[in-house]
Write a structure and sequence with these properties.
It contains six helices and eleven strands. The chain has 219 residues and is of the alpha+beta class. The strands form three sheets. A five-stranded mixed sheet has the order 5-4-3-6-7.
């Protein structure tokens, strides 16, 4: 299977460092970020998990839960947490899924079906495609996916920026331009007429017939 934008995110049950979960039930009526790691006790992932712990309050403000997954048992995750705190100064404050049978990695198309059914004996290189971020909306649909190589640490502030954009555009007929940051001008959707645009957003700047900018609407 191949996961695409607006596909329903696979549902699953799994053990985590905070107990068993049913994924869709765990998400509830908010947003969620699932971010994956090829193996425990790897250097770049250690920095990433700590960074996410430090940003958890920002995700909370956006009604967004965060959850990590690594192709290793939960027992290993619990031991890894000490290293993460030592390296980054942040205690892991969100669940980490144990995926020692590779089931979730396969469900999310991060490993092929032929990868086997155990993490035992697998190296980070064997699991290098398990380096993805999935943003999932309240409707349980995949809203964004990003996959990074093992040598490039992820920019989780970009994930926050993307969530800000998606939550804004879910509520208003707008889009956000390149490098947009909250509070900056938005682009009015093509489905909105000029007359309706004035009613909704006030005066706007018609840069091109199909590119109309306006002040960001407030909730």
């Amino acid at each position: 299977m191949t996961l695409r934008i607006n596909d329903i995110a696979p549902d699953f049950t799994a053990d985590t460092t905070e107990g068993p979960i049913a994924f869709h039930e765990w998400i509830g009526d908010g947003w969620a970020v699932l971010f994956s790691h090829p193996k425990d006790f790897t250097p770049i992932c250690t920095t990433e998990l700590g960074t996410m712990a430090g940003l958890k309050g920002e995700f909370d403000k956006r009604n967004t839960k965060i959850i990590g997954i690594s192709v290793d048992p939960v027992e290993n995750h619990k031991k890894w947490k000490g290293d993460i705190h030592k390296a980054t100064g942040h205690e892991v404050n969100y669940p980490m899924i144990g995926d020692q049978e590779l089931k979730v990695a396969k469900l999310f198309d991060m490993l092929p079906s032929t990868a086997g059914d155990t993490s035992e004996g697998r190296t980070p290189a064997d699991n290098q495609t398990v380096r993805s971020v999935f943003i999932i909306g309240p409707d349980k649909k995949v809203k964004l996916t990003l996959t990074y190589p093992m040598t490039t640490g992820r920019n989780f502030r970009e994930i926050l920026r993307a969530i800000d954009s998606m939550q804004l555009t879910a509520n208003f007929p707008v889009a956000t331009p390149a490098d947009w940051m909250p509070g900056e001008d938005i682009v009015i959707a093509g489905s909105v007429s000029d007359e309706d645009a004035v009613k909704r957003f006030g005066a706007f700047d018609a840069v091109l017939p199909y590119l109309r900018k306006a002040k960001q609407p407030s909730a």
